[in-house]
Write a structure and sequence with these properties.
Helix content: 40-55%
Largest sheet: 6 strands, parallel
Order of helices and strands: EEHHHHHEHEHHEHEHEHEH
CATH class of the largest domain: Alpha Beta
CATH superfamily of the largest domain: HAD superfamily/HAD-like
Radius of gyration: 20 Å
Strand order of the largest sheet: 5-4-1-6-7-8
Structural class: alpha/beta
Oligomer: single chain
Strand content: 5-15%
Shape: elongated
CATH architecture of the largest domain: 3-Layer(aba) Sandwich
Distance between the termini: 9 Å
Length: about 240
């Protein structure tokens, strides 16, 4: 049984745990082509094309892929700088506003915070700082009116704050150091990925894992690595209220 009374510090992953960007970003290239070339192209076609370029250039979403889109739908002379500007615009104005909070996440966080306002709350994410800034400051963000990120968390560690990403221990270690956590502090972490769980476990954390079918068709590795496994935040809320 999950007993949050046992913990001094509560830490949360962001994407996949508190919010779900997967479905929104699946539409990114379709929105890109629609907005800048006024063409309706199937998502499947674009996914297959992107996969081809990912294999060819050994990286996701290479500039060469977007050059090819310009060859197919534009005039084949779009500068790289303009491609990057367009991608940023689509991100900020059309993709991120569609990213939703996971149902029950805010309620669960507020339940814990209301019980233990004196304890430390950490946000430890592989997202970039500008992503977190968007969700905390931009009125278009689904989180903007629901949670003041900067006030809720005592410490925020992003991709930009560490040299090594999860599954390295560094992200959670850095967060604990920033809040001055004593060595014997008990840490409860909410995560959704194998990499995140490994990072937390390397810092002696107890891990609550959430199901994420967008990442894993087989959740067994996540179940085995975590201490608690829940299908969603609603189930966690039930456990918190027992």
């Amino acid at each position: 049984m999950l007993n949050i009374n046992l913990y001094d510090i509560f830490a949360f992953d962001f994407d996949g745990t508190l919010v779900d960007s997967h479905l929104a970003y699946q539409e990114k290239d379709k929105l890109y082509v629609q907005h800048f070339y006024n063409k309706n192209v199937s998502k499947d076609f674009l996914e297959h094309l992107e996969q081809h370029y990912r294999i060819l250039f050994k990286q996701p979403y290479s500039i060469e892929y977007y050059k090819h889109l310009d060859k197919l739908f534009g005039n084949s002379c779009l500068p790289v700088k303009e491609i990057k500007t367009r991608l940023l615009w689509i991100d900020e104005h059309m993709v991120k506003p569609q990213i939703k909070i996971k149902t029950g996440a805010i309620e669960a966080m507020n339940i814990i915070k209301s019980k233990y306002p004196q304890k430390k709350f950490l946000l430890v994410t592989g997202s970039k700082k500008r992503e977190i800034d968007y969700f905390s400051c931009n009125p278009l963000s689904a989180l903007y009116n629901l949670l003041n990120i900067n006030n809720f968390f005592d410490c925020i560690v992003t991709q930009d704050d560490v040299l090594e990403q999860k599954p390295s221990p560094e992200p959670y270690k850095k967060a604990l150091e920033l809040v001055g956590a004593p060595r014997n502090s008990s840490l409860l972490v909410f995560e959704d990925s194998v990499e995140g769980i490994m990072s937390a476990k390397a810092n002696n954390a107890t891990v609550v894992a959430l199901e994420n079918k967008h990442i894993y068709k087989d959740e067994e590795p996540v179940r085995k690595l975590s201490d608690y496994f829940f299908s969603d935040w609603k189930s966690i809320i039930k456990a918190l209220r027992r």
